[in-house]
Specification:
By secondary structure, this protein is an alpha/beta fold. The chain is 46% helix and 13% strand. It is globular and about 50 Å long. Bound molecules: adenosine monophosphate.
Length: 261
C-alpha cells in the first residue's frame, strides 16, 4: 500500500488553545486512512520535526503537549490558570509536569483524538501512568492506536542537536544552526519571526530532561513492545531520510496487519 502525499497542514487551534476553539482548516472530507500514532524518543531526537513532516505527508494532526505548554506561556498573566502557572515552572526547570495536570489537559482536548484526520501524539504519553490513561481513554472512545514510533539516537548526537536547535515562537517552526539552518541567520523562513533557543534547551535544563526521560519515559518502549505496537527507527540521518524510513516502516505495519502477521 502506498502512502498518499496529502500536504495538509492543520493550524491545530483546537489542540493549542483548548476550550471551544475550532481549527480553521478541518479536513473537508475524511482521508481514506486516518493515521493514529504516538511518537516516542528522548528530547532532541527530532520527534517534533518528524511529526511536522509526517503531518504534511499523512494529513494527521501534530498534537504536542510541549507545544500546548509553550502556547500557554504566551498568554497574559490573568489568562493563565494556577495549574498552568505551576506546569510552566516544571517546564522551565526541564522537569516533567505532573501526570494529573497533563492528563486533565489531554482529556479536555479529547475531540482532537476523535478528529477524522487522525493524530500524531508527540511528547505524550511520557510516563507509564500517562500511557495507561491514554489506553483507557482510547478504549473508551473506541479509537485504536496503530503504532508507536520510537526514534533512537546516541547521547552525543542528542546533545549536539539540542544545543543547535532554534525555534520560532510565532509559528513553532524548528531549525538547527548547522543541520537545518534558516535561509537568513536567526530569522524564520516561514513567517519571518525572530528565532530563539527554547528555555528548556539550555544545558542545565537539558540534563534534567534527559534524567526524566531515562527514568520515566524509556520504560514506555517495553510497555508498547509488549502490546505489539512498537516500531523502532534509527534517527541519525537528515530529517527527510528519517521520514523516508518512517514511511517505509508504516507501510510494512499496514501490510503486515492486512496479511494478519
Ligand atoms: P517537549 O516539547 O515535548 O520536549 O516538552 C517540553 C516540556 O513540557 C517538557 O520538558 C515537560 O516539562 C513538559 N511536558 C510536555 N509534555 C509532557 C508530558 N506528557 N508529561 C509531562 N511533562 C510534559
Amino acid at each position: 500500500m502506498e502512502i498518499a502525499q496529502m500536504k495538509t497542514i492543520n493550524d491545530r487551534a483546537a489542540w493549542l488553545k483548548g476550550g471551544t476553539t475550532v481549527c480553521s482548516n478541518l479536513p473537508i472530507e475524511p482521508p481514506k486512512k486516518a493515521w493514529r500514532l504516538v511518537l516516542l524518543g528522548a528530547p532532541g531526537v527530532g520527534k517534533g520535526t518528524q511529526a511536522e513532516l509526517l503531518s504534511e505527508q499523512l494529513g494527521a494532526c501534530h498534537l504536542s503537549t510541549g507545544d500546548v505548554f509553550r502556547a500557554a506561556k504566551c498568554l497574559g498573566d490573568d489568562e493563565r490558570s494556577p495549574a498552568i502557572e505551576k506546569a510552566l515552572e516544571y517546564m522551565r526547570r526541564g522537569d516533567l509536569v505532573p501526570d494529573r495536570t497533563v492528563l486533565d489537559m489531554v482529556t479536555e482536548r479529547v475531540r482532537c483524538l476523535r478528529c477524522c484526520g487522525g493524530f500524531l501524539l508527540d511528547g505524550f504519553p511520557r510516563t507509564v501512568a500517562q500511557a495507561e490513561s491514554l489506553e483507557r481513554l482510547l478504549e473508551w472512545e473506541q479509537i485504536p492506536l496503530m503504532a508507536v514510533l520510537d526514534y533512537e539516537l546516541p547521547l552525543e548526537e542528542i546533545i549536539d542537536r539540542i544545543g543547535g536547535r532554534r525555534t520560532c515562537p510565532a509559528c513553532k517552526a524548528v531549525y538547527h544552526v548547522k543541520a537545518l539552518p534558516p535561509r537568513a541567520a536567526g530569522v524564520c523562513d516561514k513567517c519571518g519571526g525572530k528565532l530563539i533557543q527554547r528555555e528548556d534547551d539550555r544545558p542545565e535544563s537539558v540534563r534534567v530532561r534527559m534524567e526524566a526521560y531515562e527514568k520515566s519515559t524509556r520504560p514506555l518502549i517495553e510497555y508498547y513492545e509488549r502490546r505489539g505496537l512498537l516500531v523502532s527507527i534509527a534517527a541519525e540521518a537528515i530529517p527527510q531520510e528519517t521520514l523516508r524510513r518512517t514511511l517505509t516502516m508504516l507501510n510494512d505495519v499496514v501490510a503486515n496487519r492486512a496479511s494478519g502477521k
